[in-house]
């Protein structure tokens, strides 16, 4: 046992996870790895042979907080020698598999968390030397008869062990392989050295039984030529294989929620709330995937909230957008208005400092999980991320007209509640006069985007539903107050109609029934119900609006 070789660390990490209140069993992923091991032989499919790739080389890329490190710890804890892991895996799904005993604690595992740096690390040499030194020390301790020379290259040492110790092989589990690419100290030459190091260590080496890597960015981003082309890459957007093991599926969230309801007094989290806050990601075949860290945090804390980052609520998002504000700003208007934006998303993100075009920036944000993509469009996946985008809009003056419109949203809500249509028209005209390039004002959809933006701050005190089923139709917007004593708001938008006609539609179709309780039940909402008609006349290019109190409870 050592720091990297058959280490206690992944076993202890995974044991802690298994013992957690909202553990989800994803051990059947191990069953998919068993055929790749056998007696250590390379297992290739026909397609792999044609591309020169071996299926014993796997790279999983996902946004942060989607369970990559959990899976890496699980794999190492299951396979590594020197422990009896039955008390961890004995009651889990993998224990029912035929090859369970054959592989449990039967392999030498090199487990490295590549996101760790030495103290006061300022150069790539310091970073990689720590890794090399620790592996070398572990091998020298475990194989004292292998004539290890610490001056040799690591791959030479592994090959000596393979030859002298009866063909000893190793499973390599490398978590966060791309971490070092985000360090300020890394030069272009360092990048090539790092890729060469991984290639020399793993590629075509007889001592490699399995190489399993995780990261955010796919290898293709950094590996030119043939350096790491032996890896099969599995991203959420392009490959369905392994998708169910990263993130939570609908079925898994249902099960966790039932456990939460059973064990939690005064449960404040709803199942619908979990969907609104943490769903929104999709596999290649369209299956919904939830952010696992956020779901478990919400259930543990009995509170729906933003668990995406531990510090800096919007800094990371703005980092990408700031690379080309002018090109991305208009897309932001639509996405924050809950619209999807057409974009040709690449399967990799550009090097962070080289982001220049809208396509590159949006691609990077999809890779990092700030956006999601489906059917050729990108959008903000859920409320957790929407909150971060909203915070950015309200705090960044460099976003120009988008920031200014968002800042007007406080005034717009107050004017609506006060029936101050003059102020509402002033703000609407200001929004129109910004001449947002993406909005042509040809239909209600364009008007919807503007309304979303100028009521941005209302999301703090209202649950805003668009195209909400109400009465005998669908209301354009219904604002449900989080405090049931506050006023509810119904907004109907029209182009080339009058505000009176918009309000009449609200009445005729019974949209206000959404605020009434079921028959014989006490009404949940006790404030006023306001009908708001907002219109735009294309001929004279002006807005109009009207407010009417429909009901006072």
Overview in brief:
This protein has helices at residues 8-18, 28-37, 46-51, 68-79, 86-89, 100-103, 124-142, 154-164, 188-202, 250-263, 271-278, 292-301, 315-321, 325-336, 358-367, 383-395, 401-407, 409-418, 421-433, 444-454, 499-508; strands at residues 57-61, 108-113, 170-175, 208-215, 232-235, 281-282, 288-289, 341-342, 372-374, 377-379, 462-470, 473-481, 488-495, 528-537, 542-552.
Write the layout of secondary structure elements.
Elements: H1 8-18, H2 28-37, H3 46-51, E1 57-61, H4 68-79, H5 86-89, H6 100-103, E2 108-113, H7 124-142, H8 154-164, E3 170-175, H9 188-202, E4 208-215, E5 232-235, H10 250-263, H11 271-278, E6 281-282, E7 288-289, H12 292-301, H13 315-321, H14 325-336, E8 341-342, H15 358-367, E9 372-374, E10 377-379, H16 383-395, H17 401-407, H18 409-418, H19 421-433, H20 444-454, E11 462-470, E12 473-481, E13 488-495, H21 499-508, E14 528-537, E15 542-552
Parallel strand pairs: 1-4, 1-5, 2-3, 3-4, 13-14
Antiparallel strand pairs: 6-7, 8-10, 9-10, 11-12, 12-13, 14-15
Helix pairs in contact: 1-4, 10-12, 16-17, 18-19
């Amino acid at each position: 046992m050592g720091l990297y070789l058959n280490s206690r660390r992944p076993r202890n990490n995974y044991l802690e996870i298994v013992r957690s209140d909202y553990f989800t069993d994803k051990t059947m992923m191990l069953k998919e790895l068993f055929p790749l091991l056998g007696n250590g032989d390379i297992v290739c499919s026909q397609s792999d042979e044609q591309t020169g790739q071996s299926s014993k080389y796997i790279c999983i890329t996902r946004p942060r907080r989607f369970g990559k490190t959990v899976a890496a710890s699980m794999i190492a804890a299951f396979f590594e020698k020197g422990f009896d892991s039955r008390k961890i895996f004995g009651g889990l799904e993998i224990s029912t598999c035929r090859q369970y005993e054959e592989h449990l604690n039967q392999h030498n595992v090199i487990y490295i968390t590549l996101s760790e740096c030495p103290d006061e690390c300022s150069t790539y040499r310091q970073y990689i030397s720590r890794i090399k030194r620790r592996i070398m020390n572990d091998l020298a301790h475990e194989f004292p008869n292998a004539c290890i020379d610490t001056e040799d290259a690591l791959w030479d040492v592994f090959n000596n062990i393979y030859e002298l110790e009866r063909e000893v092989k190793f499973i390599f589990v490398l978590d966060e392989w791309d971490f070092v690419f985000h360090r300020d100290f890394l030069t272009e030459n360092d990048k090539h050295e790092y890729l060469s190091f991984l290639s020399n260590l793993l590629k075509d080496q007889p001592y490699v039984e399995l190489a399993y890597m995780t990261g955010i960015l796919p290898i293709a981003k950094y590996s030119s030529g043939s350096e790491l082309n032996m890896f099969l890459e599995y991203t959420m957007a392009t490959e369905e294989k392994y998708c169910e093991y990263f993130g939570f599926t609908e079925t898994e969230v249902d099960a966790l929620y039932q456990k939460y309801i059973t064990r939690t007094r005064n449960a404040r989290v709803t199942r619908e709330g979990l969907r609104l806050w943490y769903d929104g990601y999709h596999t290649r075949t369209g299956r919904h995937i939830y952010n696992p860290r956020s779901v478990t945090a919400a259930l543990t804390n009995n509170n729906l909230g933003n668990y995406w980052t531990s510090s800096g609520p919007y800094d990371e998002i703005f980092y990408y957008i700031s690379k080309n504000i002018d090109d991305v700003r208009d897309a932001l208007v639509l996405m924050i208005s809950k619209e999807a934006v057409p974009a040709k998303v690449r399967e990799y993100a550009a090097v962070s400092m080289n982001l220049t075009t809208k396509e590159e920036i949006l691609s990077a944000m999809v890779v990092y999980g700030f956006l999601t993509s489906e059917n050729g469009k990108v959008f903000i996946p859920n409320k957790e991320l929407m909150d971060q985008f909203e915070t950015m809009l309200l705090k960044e003056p460099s976003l120009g007209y988008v920031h200014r419109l968002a800042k007007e949203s406080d005034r717009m809500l107050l004017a609506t509640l006060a029936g101050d249509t003059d102020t509402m028209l002033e703000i609407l005209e200001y929004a129109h006069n910004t001449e947002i390039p993406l909005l042509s004002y040809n239909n209600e959809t364009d008007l919807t985007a503007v309304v979303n933006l100028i009521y941005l701050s209302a999301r703090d005190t209202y649950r805003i539903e668009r195209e909400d089923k109400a009465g005998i139709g669908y209301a354009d917007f219904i604002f449900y107050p989080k405090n049931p004593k506050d006023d509810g708001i119904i907004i109907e938008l029209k182009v080339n109609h009058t505000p009176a006609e918009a309000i009449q539609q609200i009445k005729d179709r019974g949209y206000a029934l959404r605020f009434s309780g079921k028959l014989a039940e006490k009404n949940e909402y006790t404030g006023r119900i306001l009908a708001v008609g907002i219109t735009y006349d294309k001929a004279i290019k002006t807005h109009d609006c009207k407010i009417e109190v429909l009901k006072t409870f």
